[in-house]
Amino acid sequence: MKKIAYLGVFILIVLAIFKTTPTFAQSPTNKKQMRFIATAAHLSNASVTAVSGNTLTVSKEGKSYTINTDTKTQFRRRFWGKSSISEISTGDEINIWGKWANEEKTTITARLIRDLSIQKRNGVFIGQIKEKTDSGFTMQTINRGLQTVTVDKNTKYLNRMGQNINFADLAVNDKVKVKGLWDNKSNTITEVVYVKDFNIPAKNNVTPTLTK
User: Fold this and answer.
1) According to the model, what pLDDT value does residue 31 have?
2) Residue spans per domain, the chain
């Protein structure tokens, strides 16, 4: 009987502990902490000072912040194209949305990071081929300077009539139009859809003769 009584007391004590635990969790101090953890965080135009693994260090108005990322974090470029943390570099300007991770509000668990310095976008560019390589060529453009164009197996080559040609047909000094993904940071054009060569076929410059 005593064993049963002791067992009953033990059960009551355990129940009392678990019963009081939620009360502690609902204490004013803990409520404040719970509200704090759920507080949304946002930094705009912060400058990246360091990149280490999945963690960024940024500076905003002279204050340093630690930005933690995980599998739930989404990365976007300036024009909202998908990105990744591997594209972020020191000196980049970024916007961060997430939640504060500490009471001092110096650490953020990020859910969305937009890198304003990565201006990758699809576009069409016209210029003159300056040098050919095995993987593409460099092209001098009017407004964006020298660009490095990288082609791949999916790139199409067209003459000025819209007919198919080959990469080997492209020549230095030819005027070309390129459609692909432009990166303003590295001055590169990748994922090239097509290259159109305006010098092929050669224009007939024969002067017509007048007949009497």
Assistant:
1) 53
2) 35-115, 121-197
pLDDT tens, 164-191? 999 999 999 999 999 999 998 889 999 9
Residue showing tokens 């090239």: 192
pLDDT tens readout for residues 58-98: 999 999 999 999 999 999 999 898 999 999 999 999 999 99
- Whether 35-115 shares its CATH topology with 121-197 is answered yes
Domain 121-197 annotated CATH 2.40.50.140: yes
**Could you give the CA distance from residue 171 to residue 158 in angstroms, rounded to a whole number?**
13
- Are 113 and 95 spatial neighbours (Cβ–Cβ below 8 Å)? yes
> CATH classification of 35-115 is 2.40.50.140, yes or no?
yes
Which H or E run includes 195? strand 188-197
Omega cis (within 30) before 201: yes
197-201: long-range contacts, CB 8 A cutoff, minimum separation 24: 197/157, 197/158, 197/159, 197/160, 197/165, 197/169, 197/170, 198/160, 198/174, 199/160, 199/171, 199/173, 199/174, 199/175, 200/159, 200/160, 200/165, 200/169, 200/174, 201/159, 201/160, 201/161
CB 115: neighbour CB atoms within 10 A?
A: 23
Residue type, 193: V
